[in-house]
């Protein structure tokens, strides 16, 4: 179980509460859609949950192990288990999909490995296995700059898994993608939850959250206003977080 108690995030020189005392708990294997109007704090919430932002206050526990107490960012031990997927993944455009999966992001591997791409054979096979699972084996030796948006997102997911992520926070991962590519990315994320017990929290449009997610959080002005499992939102619920 992952538990969040009174997550608070101050911005603008600690003058404004961007996230306001959020408390929630969830289990491995859940795919959670975060919905809400622009400026509601969705991206900031994802970055805090993925330990990419320092909390101003609050506690964060995983399976009764304290990750954050009274604010802070969490140790590297826990950050390495989290992945944050941006709208446009930060891949190295002149390196192949395989190299991007292997060398990861700054902070995940040694400087030497990032620069040279030197890897162990078991790392290589693990990366190829992940690319194959997500239909990218034929793209392994294609430079990332030549991949489609959906392919880049799936490469970023493979990279996260190879580097040990059990928790994935995805910030509008299908924005700008065609419907077929968006469906493939979301099905990939959903399969990670259902088949591997990963936890995915993704900021999504309401119609996609209702279609793909097992649970929906509604955020407005930095507050968690809705927490709904296993069904679509009612019209009243959508109004409560300014979605209609």
The rounded Rg comes to 18 Å
CATH class of the largest domain: Alpha Beta
Q: What's the CATH topology label of the largest domain?
A: Rossmann fold
For the record, the CATH architecture of the largest domain stands as: 3-Layer(aba) Sandwich
**What's the overall geometry?**
globular
Number of strands: 10
- At the fourth CATH level, what is the homologous superfamily of the largest domain? P-loop containing nucleotide triphosphate hydrolases
| Alpha-beta content class | alpha/beta
Unreliable spans are 105-117
Largest sheet: 6 strands, mixed
Listing every helix as H and every strand as E from the N terminus to the C terminus, the arrangement reads EEEHEEHEHHHHEHEHEEH
For the residues shown, what is the average pLDDT?
89
Oligomeric category:
single chain
Q: How large is the count of helical segments?
A: 9
Domain module count: 2
Give a written overview of the molecule.
With 244 residues, the chain is of the alpha/beta class. Helix content is 34%, strand content 26%. The chain is built from nine helices and ten strands. The protein has helices spanning 42-49, 76-79, 97-103, 111-116, 121-133, 149-162, 179-196, 206-212, 235-240; strands at 2-11, 16-26, 31-35, 57-62, 65-68, 82-85, 167-171, 199-203, 215-220, 223-229. The strands form two sheets. Strands 6-7-8-3-9-10 form a six-stranded mixed β-sheet, with helices on both faces. It has a four-stranded antiparallel β-sheet with strand order 2-1-4-5, with helices on one face. Strand 7 (167-171), helix 7 (179-196) and strand 8 (199-203) form a beta-alpha-beta unit. It is globular and about 45 Å long. Residues 105-117 have low confidence and may be disordered. Keywords: ATP-binding, Cell membrane, Membrane, Nucleotide-binding, Translocase, Transport. This is ATP-binding cassette domain-containing protein.
